[in-house]
Amino acid sequence: MYPEEKVGIKGMLQHGLPENVTGMMASIAETMKAGEFDYADDTLKKLIGHPPLDLKDFLKSVYGTKSL
User: Fold this and answer.
1) DSSP assignment, residue 49?
2) Going by C-beta distance under 8 Å and a sequence separation of 6 or more, which residues neighbour residue 48?
3) Would residue 51 be called left, alpha or beta, if left means φ above 0 and alpha means ψ between -120 and 50 degrees?
4) Could you give the CA distance from residue 43 to residue 17 in angstroms, rounded to a whole number?
5) Rounded CA gap, 26 and 38, in Å?
6) How high is the mean pLDDT in each 10-residue block of the chain (68 residues)?
7) Residue 63 contacts by C-beta under 8 Å, 6 or more apart in sequence?
């Protein structure tokens, strides 16, 4: 575990997150850092019947363009 991850876990605990949740969050962060989520496929497109919006387009559709 990297020092910044220990700081992150300590902060989550100080804000009242249960220890098992902080462990799960740290595990997800490690997985992301290792690049294990760095892939894309068309599963979501098949499920919803159209290409998904990227985050910026979604936020524009919800909040307009003022804050972007």
Assistant:
1) S
2) none
3) beta
4) 32
5) 18
6) 70 92 89 88 94 88 75
7) none
The whole-angstrom distance between residue 63's C-alpha and the CA centroid of its chain comes to 20
| Distance, CA of 20 to CA of 12 (rounded, Å) | 11
Which has the closest alpha carbon to 5: 21, 23, 20, 18?
A: 23
Tokens 């019947």 correspond to 49
Per-residue model confidence (pLDDT) at position 46: 96
For helices 3-14 and 19-33, what crossing angle results, to 10°?
150
Query: Which residue has tokens 């850092």?
Result: 33
Q: Where are the alpha helices (DSSP H) in 1-68?
A: 3-14, 19-33, 43-48, 55-63
Q: Contact 19/13 with Cβ under 8 angstroms?
A: yes
First to last CA, the chain: 36
